Amino acid sequence: MTSITSLTVCLAYALGLLASGLTIFQPDYGKFWGIPLGGYGLALVGLVCAVSLPRRWYRGPTATGWVAAGLVGLLAAGYCSYRTPQPADTDVSQLLHSETQPTLTVRGAIAQAPRLTRSDQGQLWVEVRSVRKLGDTGAQSLGGKLYVTAPKLQITGLRQGQQVLLAGRLYQPQAAQNPNGFDFRKYLASKGCFAGFRADQLEAASEVSTGLWQLRQRIVQSQALYLGSPAGPLMSAMALGRKAVDLPFDIRDTFIQAGLAHTLAASGFHVALVLGLVLSLTKSRSTRTQVISGAIALFCYVCLTGAQPSVMRAALMGGGALIGLATERKVNPLGCLLIAVTGLLLLQPTWVWDIGFQLSVAATFGLIVTAQPIAEWLDWLPSPAAALIAVPLAASLWTAPLQLYHFNTLPTYGLLLNVITTPLISIISLGGVITGMIAIVWQSGGGAIAGLFYYPIHLLIALVDFCNRQPGSSLAIAQVSLLQVGALYSLFFLAWLQPWLRSRRWIVGAIACGLVIIPAWSEAQTLQQITVLSAQHSALVIQQPGKTILVSDGDRKTADYAVLPFLRQAGINRLTTGILLGAESESITGWQQILQQVPTQTLYATTVLAADYLEVQELPVGQTTDLDAAQIQNLGANSAIVRILFQDQAWLSIGRLPSEAQQQLAQAGELLKVK
User: Fold this and answer.
1) Displacement of CA 66 from its chain's centroid (Å)
2) Helices 287-305/309-327 angle, 10° precision
3) Taking a C-beta distance cutoff of 8 angstroms, is the pair 4, 60 a contact?
4) Integer CA distances (angstroms), 666 to 593, 638, 640, 669, 672, in order
5) Does the pLDDT of residue 622 top 60, yes or no?
6) S-S: 150 plus which of 199, 310, 589, 654, CB 3.0-4.6 Å?
């Protein structure tokens, strides 16, 4: 099999896994003989290519190669569908189908280290062993995994692998309720979990077991010894990845918003640091010693970080480099990447949907094929400066379509911040790795050395905060479709493979921008709608060309999980008008979160009390305010009731009105002239 045929077959396998995506969480839809229809589409494409391409593309795969690629794509779609987690008959989630939901006592083992949620609750994953209903004398042997929330004081001291007893109730995870909303049910299903559990009581049923968590905890505690919080956990996350460290949400969010999320994810950069450090320390030794030391270091690092997909990919590529060192042969980085990705997806095909894995592969591919051409294009700069710009630019270009698709935003200053902070990030990450190694054998010594990085870490935090405070620090892009993502990557591949197009990079850039901007701009010029968001508290968005109004009394949770995701997927970077219902502290906190990310031209409030916390204009009771896009009238003297007239239809937004008052208001509909 030629190299081009091997490449085609591997790509067909990846496409086959992706082809199962339409049915991956709906197993009874779009399948024939257990294989998603997308797989049959790939087989058909393989047959068409086998008939038409060999006579036109002499250096490409043979007809047999194309047929083989199509069959591989077909089988891959079925394989991914087969390996997708589904609840078994003995899964604890089957109890959700019962008519009543009694209090349950669950016995199980902690699968991952407990953490805190945004709402300051304890959270842990539990592998179920048995379940007993309230009043029953015997326990029922069940399996499966549970996403457990409990009071944070009750999870203190619990460790991974420990047996626990839980008392509480099961609940059905909620699917996405709004456009671009967080699909909690889909997220849990991707982890092999199909039910949530609210624990009222939680107690340990076994002693703490030994494990790698002790080494991770030793490193984290050592680095926080002199650095404190958040600098200590940040250094640990930059060395081990945030999935191995319980990093405070405010720090994590600021880094993600600024475009530095990759610094908190263990990836190829960290693996290269570890491998480079070990090879430097053993360079005076024999090649055999270097290879063995490097392999041991890679294995230990993968275990410490929790065997995350992106780390596994980087470790396999690092292993390829060690093989090249041992055989004294040059390793083809593209071939190494292809083998690593294909091997991992054979082992765990559902990793194809892991966002971190996708971004890691795209960034690595971009560095391999694009970093050097960009550096050559910047040859008018000193070589170190050109390399400093080329690396983040290449990675950003190839990850941009995925970032737009998954997050609907682009950090405006992300590239500039990456260029400026690369030296700092390298120093801190390397320091985290070195002090972590020292902390394993000498905890206080590792902590003392980590304390030397206090000022570099706080300088990095200050730079990130400064960028996030600038106007337009994050650019929201309207929802990008899979078709647009495919078109963007097709364009990038053509620019890589075709010298004529590669030399006309401005044409490529213009087409890429057009693929993203033109559809969003076209929709924004014609869209006129009012959207009532599904949330615990009131949230309503009015959209007209050039104007957007938000009416909300929501808390921080409503802002984070309903309002802001909707604004991002709609491509709304600025509100013409905001209307705050009431003056509850939770409502004000929610609006403060919104205003930090979305500039608002004018903010109105139904009560003057809100002026103590926000810069607002009061909506006088009974007076109609014309906002061009809509007319607003405050009807509540003592309660937040707003009447909205939009396109000859009247809407009432009632804020946090008690249910009795809501019933009275509904009976008075004619008096209020609500249509």
Assistant:
1) 35
2) 180
3) yes
4) 32, 17, 15, 5, 9
5) yes
6) 199
Domain 529-672: state its class: alpha beta
Top pLDDT among 643 and 127 is at: 127
List the one residue out of 613, 666, 617, 616 whose CA is nearest residue 641. 666
Say if domain 92-209 classifies as CATH 1.10.238.10. Answer: no
Residue 470 CB neighbours (<10 A): 10
What's the CA gap between 4 and 12, in Å, rounded?
12
What percent of the chain is modeled with pLDDT above 70? 93
Pick 601 or 36 by higher pLDDT.
601
From CA 417, how far away is CA 406, in angstroms rounded?
Answer: 21
Burial code of 198-236, b = ≥16 C-beta within 10 A, e = fewer? ebeebeeeeeeeeeebebbebbbebbbbbbeebbbbbbb
Instruction: Give the pLDDT confidence of 376-400 residue by residue, as tens digits.
Output: 888 888 888 888 888 889 999 999 9
Predicted local confidence at residue 22, as pLDDT: 58
Q: What is the DSSP string of 428-463?
A: HHHHHHHHHHHHHH-HHHHHHHHGGGHHHHHHHHHH
How far CA 52 is from CA of 65, 198, 447, in Å, comes to 13, 59, 65
**Strand pairing report for 547-552 and 539-544:** antiparallel
pLDDT above 90 coverage of the chain, percent: 29
Residue closest to 606 by CA, chosen among 591, 593, 621: 621
Q: What's the rounded mean pLDDT across residues 225-241?
A: 90
**Contact predicate 8/61, CB 8 Å:** yes
pLDDT value at residue 662: 67
Burial class of residue 663, CB neighbours in 10 A (0-12, 13-18, 19+): exposed
Using CA atoms, how far apart are residues 45 and 63, in angstroms rounded to an integer?
12
Query: Rounded mean pLDDT of the chain?
Result: 86
Q: What is the pLDDT of residues 405-431, one digit of tens each?
A: 988 888 989 889 998 998 899 999 999
Residues 6 or more apart whose Cβ sits within 8 Å of residue 570:
179, 476, 478, 479, 541, 543
CA distances (Å), 269 to each of 240, 274, 313, 325, in order? 11, 9, 12, 19
CA angle 118, 610, 592 (to 5 degrees): 30
Q: Which residues contact 126 (CB under 8 A, 6 or more apart)?
A: 106, 108, 109, 110, 111, 145, 146, 148, 164, 166, 197
Do residues 664 and 613 make contact, with C-beta atoms less than 8 angstroms apart?
no
* Alpha helices, H only, 241-354: 249-258, 268-281, 287-305, 309-327, 333-347
Ranges of beta strands (E only) in 154-206 are 163-171, 196-204
Question: CA 131, CA 142: separation in Å to the nearest integer?
Answer: 7
Q: Give the closest residue to 111 by CA, choosing from 86, 148, 153, 156.
A: 148
Which position has the token pair 């016995």? Answer: 107
CA angle 181, 187, 191 (to 5 degrees): 175
Lowest mean pLDDT among 34-43, 119-128, 216-225, 350-359: 34-43
Contact present, 145 and 187 (Cβ < 8 Å): no
Six-digit token string for 101: 């939901």
| Helix, coil or strand: residue 504 | coil
